[in-house]
Specification:
The chain is 49% helix and 5% strand. The protein has 386 residues and is mainly α. Among the domains are: 1-69 and 128-176, no CATH class; 230-314, no CATH class; 331-385, no CATH class. The strands form two sheets. The chain has a five-stranded antiparallel β-sheet with strand order 4-6-7-3-5. It has a two-stranded antiparallel sheet with strand order 1-2. This is Lytic murein transglycosylase. InterPro entries: Lysozyme-like_dom_sf, MltB-like, MltB_2, Peptidoglycan-bd-like, PGBD-like_sf, PGBDSf, SLT_2. It comes from Stagnihabitans tardus.
């Protein structure tokens, strides 16, 4: 039944047509019609739509994700603590069998799953108290990202029909994610795993379900077994910094020829991108192909890099060398930078004060034009030149 519903939902996606931004009652009726067209049970549709309402707190949270404005060192220090690292060891031992199964079936190491489990909910302790049904309906009705959230509403109705979702009772994050590893309904429907063998997929209460489901999701998006994802490196004082960045990759052997060396162990014989989250004077990493898979979990560069780094710590790597980065920009300065880059024709996405991948790429090009080291780290000096 689960596979049939997942396939039915996937085939229905191009036809989604519920209006966004208009009367909410009309929107509910349109979404119910979409669900009926899929053949979902009327009882599940009625149970889901009854009492559904807009949650203004969800919209406020969606508009104000200021936490991602922190730089890599600030962000990683905020998320990675001694207690989280210790708890990762505790939960690794407690659920050793599930982690072994995740590695065997999906090729995903426990460190990566533990990192997301820690960051998302502190190993299940803080799963969010937003009404998930209302959160999904609010974001599906809002016109910012309806193409993402309308399918999630249909998936939640499908989960309701299967007994894996309780409308008005199920709670989670403001963006509709559910359970200990915070997965959206469509991912649960399509890649959820019954890790404890009870016949249900209950990510809120079952750690084995959460562990196996997280592994399945990463494998689905392209995780390659027995390969690294991130490795701290030491960079030379001088090199062609324009080769750095997530949008570029070279064989590790070429990075070695440029003077890049592993801080621990050897470089992997793989394509890799040189990441300089805070410029050439700050922490440095080689990101291997598995690193990019993590953006299917979260789109934030600083979050993904921190999660990838934390996973290496769980697996035994040493703390990174923070170096001595050049001073960066404040949130207002970053917005000013983005505005000036946009005026020059660069696509930096939303002017939000967040140093994302597109802003970094534009910064790197402007640094090169100005004869500055093109390491993608914006400084007051660059802002002044613009």
């Amino acid at each position: 039944m689960r596979l049939a519903l997942a396939l039915l939902l996937a085939s229905a996606l191009p036809a989604l047509s519920a209006p966004c931004g208009g009367d909410f009652k009309d929107f509910k009726a349109a979404m119910a019609a979409e669900a009926r067209a899929m053949g979902l049970a009327e009882s599940a549709i009625e149970a889901f739509m009854a009492g559904a309402q807009v949650d203004k707190a969800v919209l406020k949270a969606d508009r104000g994700q200021g936490f991602f404005r922190k730089n890599f060192i600030e962000f990683s220090q905020a998320l990675i603590s001694k207690s989280r690292l210790q708890n990762a060891g505790v939960y690794s031992k407690k659920h050793d069998r599930s982690f072994d199964e995740a590695a065997r079936r999906f090729g995903v190491p426990r460190g990566m799953i533990l990192a997301f489990w820690a960051f998302e909910t502190d190993f299940g302790a803080v799963q969010g108290d937003f009404d998930t049904r209302n959160a999904l309906m609010t974001l599906a009705h809002d016109c910012r990202r309806p193409e993402l959230f309308q399918p999630q509403v249909l998936a939640a109705i499908a989960l309701t029909a299967m007994g894996d979702f309780e409308p008005g009772v199920t709670k989670g994050a403001w963006a509709g994610e559910i359970g200990q590893v915070q997965m959206l309904p469509k991912d649960i429907l399509e890649r959820g795993e019954d890790g404890d063998g009870d016949g249900l997929i209950t990510l809120k209460t079952s750690a084995p379900d959460a562990i196996l489901s997280a592994a399945h999701m990463l494998q689905y998006h392209g995780w390659r077994p027995n390969e690294p994802w991130l490795q701290e490196v030491v960079v030379p004082e001088q090199m062609d910094w324009s080769q750095a960045g997530i949008d570029k990759a070279l064989p590790a052997s070429q990075w070695a020829q440029m003077g890049v060396r592993a801080r621990e162990g050897d470089l992997a014989n793989l394509q890799a991108s040189l990441l300089l989250p805070m410029g050439r004077k700050g922490p440095a990493f080689l990101a291997y192909p598995n690193y990019k898979v993590l953006f299917e979990w979260n789109k934030s560069f600083v979050y993904v890099t921190t999660a990838a780094y934390f996973a290496t710590r769980i697996e035994g790597a040493a703390p990174y060398d923070a170096g001595d980065p050049e001073p960066g920009l404040s949130a207002d300065q970053m917005k000013a930078l983005q505005q000036r880059l946009a005026a020059k024709g660069y696509d930096v996405g939303k002017i939000d004060g967040v140093l994302g991948a597109m802003t970094r790429a534009a910064v790197q090009k402007e640094q090169a034009k100005a004869g500055m080291p093109a390491d993608g780290w914006p400084t007051p000096a660059l802002l002044g030149k613009l």
